[in-house]
DNA sequence: AACAGGAGCAACCGCACCACA
DNA sequence: ATGTGGTGCGGTTGCTCCTGT
């Protein structure tokens, strides 16, 4: 059913609020409460529509509003809640005292969304972007460009750092790609085409880091000997040996604390990322089913440290990789 | 110093939902 | 059961400020 806009009456002011208008609104609400927002403007002596008054009050003038930059904790909370709730800004705002839905929405759109995109995540699904193969050449070009600069005497530290970060980013995205393609292959057998693409990319990755004895392709293949990527029994878990995947120990915890190929995320009461002990603690309110696909290192063998919720941790990857990025920058 | 482009943010718009007559 | 008013919510716009050239 249609309804006319509340602000279509002619003569009502729009646009930025003046100090005088703010004071009128504050004074009226302090004395009488807001009551009916539609009736408020006349009672308060404001030439605005009720909706405009309500927005001004709830988003800006309310006394309990916290202003200023978002803290790291608030940022983590937003990311976490957004991975669960999506764009339910008002619901997210209820967990952040003093912050309005509008403020959170703006912060998301101007900061966090870009951050996720830069890190190769889809900001809506919080999963690695599926267009890795198309974005990787760009990353590699960046890396190669700085590699060329490496031979120039005028190279500064910034270029070196950029190169390192770019290579690391490419590695991260590459790992995500492996995780995702393997995870999405219901037959546990990634297509030959996918694997060939991956294999073709490896030399490019290594070219960005020729001086490193532990080149990335060597790291990747080290986890499963000389098996080609399209091996019949190739599983996601094959890629998750802590020695193989980049910084895997920082976000995938091996249940036995040994070098098996299966990563385990434990469930606990608090939602935290314990960087030191390499555990991601997932709230018990989130069930494994809700989190995503369960993966086993040996299908059908329940004793083989099964049920790592690898598919489901995608919701948490953003905060994980913020941590990793910080670590990277500190190292570089 | 002047200008252009981008980022950040307040405010607006329009749809959806709910309560009530 | 239906229509209407009030409010909430998410998406979008446009203004202001900042930064780089």
Which features characterize this protein?
disordered C terminus, elongated, Arc Repressor Mutant, subunit A, 332 residues, disordered N terminus, three-stranded mixed β-sheet, 3 strands, 3% strand, mainly alpha, 12 helices, 47% helix, DNA-binding
What does this structure look like?
- There is one protein chain.
- With 332 residues, this protein is mostly helical.
- Among the domains are: 19-61, Arc Repressor Mutant, subunit A; 72-118, Orthogonal Bundle (Arc Repressor Mutant, subunit A), CATH 1.10.10; 171-312, no CATH class.
- 47% of the residues lie in helices and 3% in strands.
- The protein is built from 12 helices and 3 strands, in the order ααααααααααβββαα.
> How far do the termini sit from each other?
59 Å
The topology string of helices and strands comes to HHHHHHHHHHEEEHH
Mean pLDDT: 52
Shape: elongated
Provide the spatial order of strands within the biggest beta sheet: 1-3-2
The total count of helices amounts to 12
**Mind summarizing the main beta sheet?**
3 strands, mixed
Poorly predicted regions are 1-9, 141-159, 177-332
Helix/strand/pairing class, anyone? Answer: mainly alpha
Rg from alpha-carbon coordinates: 26 Å
The count of DSSP E runs of length 2 or more, i.e. the number of strands, is: 3
Oligomer: single chain
């Amino acid at each position: 059913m249609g309804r006319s806009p509340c602000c279509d009456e002619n003569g009502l002011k729009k646009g930025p609020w003046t100090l005088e208008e703010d004071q009128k609104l504050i004074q009226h609400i302090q004395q009488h409460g807001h009551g009916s927002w539609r009736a408020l403007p006349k009672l308060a002596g404001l030439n605005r529509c009720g909706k405009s008054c309500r927005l001004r009050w709830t988003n800006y003038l309310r006394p309990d509003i916290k202003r200023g930059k978002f803290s790291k904790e608030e940022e983590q909370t937003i990311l976490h809640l957004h991975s669960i709730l999506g764009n339910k800004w008002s619901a997210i705002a209820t967990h952040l005292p003093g912050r309005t839905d509008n403020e959170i929405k703006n912060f998301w759109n101007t900061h966090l969304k870009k951050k996720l995109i830069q890190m190769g995540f889809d900001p809506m699904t919080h999963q690695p972007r599926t267009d890795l193969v198309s974005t990787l050449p760009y990353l590699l070009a960046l890396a190669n460009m700085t590699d060329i600069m490496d031979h120039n005497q005028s190279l500064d530290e910034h270029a070196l750092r950029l190169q390192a970060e770019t290579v690391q980013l490419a590695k991260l995205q590459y790992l995500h790609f492996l995780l995702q393609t393997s995870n999405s292959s219901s037959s546990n057998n990634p297509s030959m085409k996918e694997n060939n693409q991956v294999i073709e990319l490896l030399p490019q990755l290594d070219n960005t880091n020729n001086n490193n004895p532990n080149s990335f392709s060597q790291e990747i293949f080290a986890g499963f000997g000389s098996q080609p990527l399209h091996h019949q029994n190739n599983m996601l878990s094959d890629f998750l040996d802590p020695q193989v995947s980049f910084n895997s120990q920082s976000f995938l915890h091996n249940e036995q604390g040994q070098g098996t190929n299966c990563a385990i995320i434990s469930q606990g009461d608090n939602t935290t990322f314990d960087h030191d002990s390499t555990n991601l603690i997932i709230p018990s309110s989130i069930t494994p089913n809700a989190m995503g696909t369960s993966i086993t290192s040996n299908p059908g063998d329940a004793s083989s440290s099964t049920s790592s919720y690898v598919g489901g941790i995608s919701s948490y990857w953003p905060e994980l990789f913020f941590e990793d990025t910080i670590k990277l920058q500190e190292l570089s």
